[in-house]
Amino acid sequence: MSAHDPSAATPAELLRRRVADDPSNPLVTFYDDAAGERVELSARTFDNWVAKTANFLVDGLGAEPGTRVVLVLPPHWQTAVWLMACWSAGLVVEPVDPESVRGRDAAEPIGSSGPYILAAAQEVLDDVVGDGEAEEIVGLSLHALGGPLADCPPGVTDYAGEVRTYGDRFDPGPEVTPVAPALDVTASNVTKTTLSGAELVGAARAAAEKWELDARDRLLVHMPFTTLDGVLIALLAPLASGASVIIQRNFDKAALDRRLTVEHVTVVAGLPGPNDASGSPYRLP
């Protein structure tokens, strides 16, 4: 298969092509309305974070192709970075809603199968540190300026404190292939399914075609990464189409009209549309 055969593509290849074609324009913009934060990353900057994180996973935590990684993270630009870093290294990702682990039995595994590396937001670290299936636990402060954890429990690695020391170029080994498992996720809001990198790229291209996305589009997304639709809309379909995405957390509806204007939004997903209350993507007039 040639390098440009669609069946040979991986999510990491989508990012490489984006960096080559459009390195400087925004790829991901992030808002946390509760914290008053706005962060914008170009494709080049996003790729830099992905490479550092992939190197951290492989060189720092000993991850190998096929290693499972459970992400207990909210909608956030760093969640997108972790997804892409895992796929770059040939790891299998399972996103989990942070709200689902609050108050859990410490002996109950969070992932659907283990062992795994567990990455969790600061706000739920106390709920996950007892997970016996987690070989490594990484805590993310999700601080806008990349600050360390406010409190790092024993046995937890502080992502912000570690990741910056790793290289900003990542070269995957030959074991990382398009047909290897890449994502365990809920599809159609009902069933759990496992998709390969090639299947994710195929789904992303189909979604971009379905929603008629192109490089002129700016997507405003209010969806978690815990479903296939969320992964496609908030990350992979924008990458496949050349569009850019605005990820929202703690969304303040009062800010919507101004944000649509200021960010030049063309497509909205995760919010009720004029003719569709499901939150499916819709194009603004």
Automatic annotation (TrEMBL):
Gene3D superfamilies in alphabetical order: N-terminal domain of ligase-like
Coiled-coil blocks: none
Record domain AMP-dependent synthetase/ligase: where: 16-119
Domain of life assignment: Bacteria
InterPro entries found in the cross-reference section: AMP-dep_synth/lig_dom (IPR000873), ANL_N_sf (IPR042099), Rv3268 (IPR017523)
Protein name: TIGR03089 family protein
Organism from which the protein derives: Actinomadura chokoriensis
